[in-house]
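Q: Second attempt. The first request was missing the SMILES, so the protein and pyridoxal-5'-phosphate are both included now.
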Amino acid sequence: MVHSRQKKIPYARQSVSETDIQQVVQILKSDWLTQGPTIERFEQAVSSYCGAKHAAAVSSATAALHLACLAIGLGPGDWLWTSPNSFVASANCGLYCGSNVDFVDIDPTTYNMSVTALHSKLERAKSEGRLPKVVIPVHFSGQSCAMKEIRALSDLYGFHVIEDASHAIGGSYLERKVGCCEYSDMTVFSFHAVKIITTGEGGMVLTNDKQLANKLFVLRTHGITRDHEQMVEPAVGPWDYQQIELGLNYRLTDLQAALGTSQLDRIDEFVTRRHSIAERYYQSLSDLPLVLPYQSKESVSAFHLFVVQLVETAAVTRLELVTKMQDAGIGVNVHYIPVHLQPFYKKLGFKCGDFPEAESYYNHAITLPLFVGLEEEEQQYVIDTLRNIVFNA
Ligand SMILES: *Cc1c(COP(=O)(O)O)cnc(C)c1O
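A: Got both inputs this time. The predicted holo structure:
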């Protein structure tokens, strides 16, 4: 029997402390609500945490992906490749730039972009003369892709690499923090409320390339520069500002940056807590007809998501399991509907069967609640309810 309860358990929830709140209130009382010194403080805190040289704070990861694509000059006639097992933003950024978008199927063990599939797709594309200008690997659920191998392919075939690390701030790969950009041109983070640390809405691009960083700074604020060295005409006076590119207003506010800086102080504590919740799931669900998340020895996941796959031989279907969990007040979710199966992408010519591993994964996947404030008793209820549904079906 599944009993109902008063308080619903979401799949994700932000953790905002009294200190976080005080930091934001201080900004409200200060001279700068936006474009003030707190943005730079936040950027420096994140870039030094990750070990990258430059960081540009922006209004969302979607904006960050768009700007990163613009910074490498992605445009009409170019190709962007990403993972179908992602949020639509990882692909949409290519369409914003007028480029073509295609996908590389996932590895059925890690759920990340398959390096083997990438390699063979590159071989085919090379012979057809349509190699991608950029590949965007997505660190699904917070676990890094095989970046060393992807970087090696990018050297061989000459494409840019932008890491979509929206799930992965706080994680590491080969002993270095995700975001260090050792194997990529740029890395993008999301600070949306469900992610590892939050600014409400917000994002960031990290890079070790000074030229790319300068482009990002200019593009996020209308394409305008006040830096005399970047101006294309002689400065006419101290007030001069020049629009040198077509940019956007993708700025983050100081209010948000204050929250982000305060949240960043807690990131290691957040990731540790996520690991202990994940550990409890591993221990309590090992005898169920579920495939539990694979953890690569090369990386430490930020554990943004805990995704299980319901095996084909289980006595319940995925739909029944999700429905019963939700009826029991547990906000299970599904990450992700493969991007190429979205109606909009089907109109572009993609169809069912194009990326079979991502589709098969999707048909069995369920995301269990995992967030810093998930109480022990709540997690036990999730575990008990799941066991009940699967065994008493
Ligand atoms: C959340 C997310 C995004 C978009 O982030 P926003 O900050 O909401 O724009 C992009 N890619 C992935 C993989 C995400 O999970």
